[in-house]
Amino acid sequence: MATDLGELLVPYMPTIRVPKTGDRVFKSECAFSFDSPESEGGLYVCMNTFLGFGREHVERHYRKTGQSVYMHLKRHVKEVSTGIFPVAQRSAIVLNRDFNGEDYEYEDEAKLVIFPDHFEIALPNIEELPALVTIACDAVLNAPSAYKKQEPESWEVEIQVSRHARSLRQLDNGVRIPPSGWKCQKCEMRENLWLNLTDGTMLCGKWFFDGSGGNGHALDHYKETKHPLAVKLDTITPDGADVYSFEEEEAVLDPHISEHLSHFGIDMLQMQKKTENGHHTDNNARPRVSEWEVIQESGMKLKAVYGSGYTGIKNLGHSCYLSTVMQVLFSIPDFQRMYVGNLQRIFDYSPLDPTQDFATQMAKVGHGLLSGQYSKPPMKSELIEQVMKEEYKHQQKGISPRMLKALVSRGHPEFSSNRQQDAQEFFLHMINLVERNSPSSENPSDAFRFLVEERVQCCQTRRVRYTQRVDYCIQLPAPVEAATNREELLAYDAKRREAEENMRAPPEPVRARIPFTACLQAFTEPENVPDFWSSALQAKSAGVKTSRFASFPEYLAVQIKKFTFGVDWVPKKLDLGIDVPDFLDLSRLRATGLQSGEEELPDLMPPIVLPEDTRECNRLLNVLKKPPEIDEAAVMQLAEMGFPLEACRKAVYYTGNMGPEMAFNWIIAHMEEPDFAEPLMLPSMLGPGPFSIADSPMGATPLDNSPPEESIAILTSMGFPRTHTIRALKATNNNLERALDWIFTHPEEEESDALSNMADTEPNDNAFSNGNSHSDSTLSPDGDTSGPRVKDGPGRYELFAVISHMGASTMSGHYVCHIKKEGRWVIYNDHKVCLSERPPKDLGYIYFYHRLSSS
Q1: Does the annotation list 473 as a binding residue?
Q2: Could you tell me the maximum CA-CA distance found in the chain, to the nearest angstrom?
Q3: Cα–Cα distance measured from residue 717 to residue 740, given in angstroms and rounded to the nearest whole number
Q4: In angstroms, rounded to a whole number, what is the distance separating the alpha carbons of residues 854 and 213?
Q5: Which of 315, 459, 540, 698 qualifies as a FRET site for 266, CA 20 to 30 Å off?
Q6: What is the 3-state secondary structure (H, E, C) of 291-311?
Q7: What pTM did the predictor assign?
Q8: 279 annotated among ligand-binding-site residues
């Protein structure tokens, strides 16, 4: 039999690889779906690319690549009858087995499958399989998860229970700790404070413990008293706290932390856990208790819903900002048509590594949310068991978008981390990625795109300038001074300050109630322009700016600016409620353009100050004129490793000829970029004449090399003509943001007559029109190329989705979204999807409106 198996595998041996360091093995999730080893059909892992595929998609990969040998992984799940695992045991299973699970035991099965005949070889099979195949199978089975770096570290495994926790002696000295106003009892420090769990003293830590500074009074106190355990005050949440043992000299676990804290009047851990997820934390829980309850609709018997459009998203560790944004995006028909409607085409034409393709991963998430495949109601047997066994509750499955998160966050310093993020920033990040990865004929982000008209006026000459910019989300200020309960707020503020001074518990918080009309009014009011340069005076002067809608989008995203920065540069959230209407009419905010009687500012740019030493300018020019020096020996050494020649040249050049090792590191860091293997393009072709900046638009030196095709595609996908786009990129050294501004400030003189004639012969009611003949861009319906593509229409809207934030800042807390579907509001709280009883519209952070028809 051994000979038979060996002969059977001989034709496929060149395609079987052993995973090397750096190879990612996708053995927990399909590249095209959310199938896993726990799915009915299991998971197939290609023994050459190490990509995972569900039963429905493995044939596609075989036909496309010709790879025939796959490892089939199947996990059989059994519920544990003895109750919940201890935390440490459950974490060990997660880390060793590399799959997630709670309250279950697993029985794993692996075998090799050879396509197309589906010949199966059970594993392990050391005696009968060739040595290379056995080594490859063992390496795949023992390989870490492809997302190991994205998963939160398991504190339960790394941190041990303190030997002092069970027998800790606490002094009955009457000490009670207030929820705020803390400071070190031996100095005035208010940060990095530690509460000794024996006597209740509040003292500062040492600077090196968490990097926030301190005078070491907590450690000095231990040396004097030998009281071993202390808890960091600003880490106390309903889910736990950071505990340190001075005697053991390490962070420890305290299983009795709830009782130990309640000894000093801290009852936060006795509350009903409102997050039901260890990742959701809030460093200022007491003032936010009502906020967490209201937004999550705690205490209400919410009815779970299942099926298409009612699939939840599992929390991957502070990833609720991603979950809420994706739920809202895929409730919009434009995104559904683009990614789910074109699912088969996207999958069929996906690259060889679909985990790195944006369209594929968006289609995968969209199908997961809308198919209903991962949101099925419990079976009758489960309902009977639920009645018989009260502690058992059916858990909605949901999807885990690990691949999408890894892809869209790659290279981003914040989104690639496991920290909580701002949902509004992620929404704009996703819109930017959709723009970059959508063909010009079909772009779902068109639904959010609109133009803002900015009117800047010189206060001295009264002259004006009108410009337009593209935007996708309107940010409304929250003027606290316009609160309808201002007197109540002033009284609360006085009581709070008095409580802090006397170290007493603060009064019940009062939430500011602000009318939505006040937010709109604050948005439309004139604002000062810092460092305004008046082209009429050709000098700096005072200037004011007002903003209006030059077009209204089909879907309007409205962010309430609830967050501000404290003295420690940490974003803080204003505790306020906005009376947001279900129906909104913004018609009065339509831009009007240049009005009769207004005089425009001259179209002049501020003078550019040149360095006083012109010899330095000449020296820099000579340096730029020189051809780049590239160590060809280092280039060839890298090329012999199999890297593209042009990529090797760029690596050596950009690392300053520092040697092959430095260049190799550059290649590893940049090999995923789309222009990785494109020729090296340098701004070295300068004209021979004297140095003159006046000849260059915007003060930039024009380059003779053509702009990158990717940058051209991004701008043309917004509706700008290709020729105008190339001119803009050349004039701004291929900077996309500056190129967009250049397009708006340099209308096409050559094409303006032809376009106006076209508009005269083919009028369209939806085309944007303003009275400014010297405007920066001309709005037009889809198909016209005179400006960015927008879906302009009436400014009347209806609210259909709300993303709410709970917590003190964007760096902590939790996001939940409410979406109106089929005439009823639905709450999406990670993997849980239920009918909403009281959607908290007044506590929203981002509101989404859809345009009403003109009828």
Answers
A1: no
A2: 96
A3: 12
A4: 60
A5: 315
A6: HHHHHHCCCCCCCECCCCCCC
A7: 0.66
A8: no
In this structure, the strands spanning 576-579 and 512-515 are: parallel
Antiparallel, parallel or unpaired: β 464-471 and 450-458:
antiparallel
| Mean pLDDT within 226-248 | 85
Query: Is 704 a residue whose pLDDT tops 50?
Result: no
Q: Is 204 annotated as a binding residue?
A: yes
Distance of CA 280 to the CA centre of its chain: 16
Tokens of 736: 């996309």
The dihedral over CA atoms of 234, 240, 246, 251, expressed in degrees to the nearest 10, equals -100
CA distance 226 to 298: 43
CA dist list (Å): 124 to 108, 109, 129, 143, 158: 12, 10, 9, 16, 31
Is residue 26 within 8 A of residue 79, CB to CB? The reply is no
Judge whether 746 and 738 are in contact, CB under 8 Å.
no
Each residue of 642-660: pLDDT tens digit?
788 888 888 888 777 778 8
Q: Within the chain, how many helices (H) and strands (E) appear? A: 26, 28
Q: How many angstroms separate the Cα of 165 from the Cα of each of 86, 132, 175, 241, 300?
A: 17, 51, 20, 14, 36
Crossing angle for the helix pair 423-436 and 709-717, to the nearest 10 degrees: 110
Quote the strand ranges of 420-561, DSSP E.
450-458, 464-471, 474-476, 512-515, 527-528, 533-534, 539-540, 543-549, 555-560
Backbone angles phi, psi at 243, to 5 degrees: -115, 140
Task: Copy the structure tokens of residue 30.
Answer: 């399909």
Q: From CA 648, how far away is CA 660, in angstroms rounded?
A: 9
- Beta strands 69-79; 104-114: pairing state: antiparallel
Pairing verdict, β 555-560 and 474-476:
parallel
Whole-angstrom Cα distance, residue 442 to residue 440?
6
Half-sphere exposure of 490 (CA within 13 A, CB side): 7
Q: Residues 6 or more apart from 281 whose CB is under 8 A from it?
A: 237, 239, 275, 807, 812, 813
pLDDT over threshold 60, residue 491: yes
> CA 204 to CA 190: how far, in whole Å?
8
Q: Is 217 annotated as a binding residue?
A: yes
Residue 289 DSSP SS3: helix
| Per-residue pLDDT tens digits for 164-203 | 998 999 999 988 888 777 888 888 787 888 999 999 999 9
Amino acid at residue number 675: D
Residue pair 37/26 in contact (Cβ under 8 Å)? The answer is no
Rg (CA), the chain: 31
Three-state SS string over 426-448 comes to HHHHHHHHHHHCCCCCCCHHHHC
What domains can you pick out in the chain, each with its CATH number?
5-81+92-142 (3.30.40.10), 305-439 (3.90.70.10), 631-679 (1.10.8.10)
* Mean pLDDT comparison of 99-103, 493-497, 780-784, highest-scoring range: 493-497
CA distance 27 to 291: 40
Helices (H), 762-820: none
- Give me the residues paired with residue 556 across strands: 849
Q: Per-residue pLDDT tens for 247-281?
A: 988 888 998 888 898 888 887 544 433 333 334 44
Torsion of CA 392, 398, 399, 405, to 10 degrees: -100
Phi, psi (5° rounding) for residue 665?
Answer: -60, -35
H or E element that contains 798: strand 796-806
Preceding peptide of 116 cis, ω within 30°: yes
d(CA 2, CA 632): 51
Q: How far apart are CA 220 and CA 790, in angstroms?
A: 65
Instruction: Identify the residue whose tokens are 């603060």.
Output: 506
| Separation of alpha carbons 616 and 595, rounded Å | 48
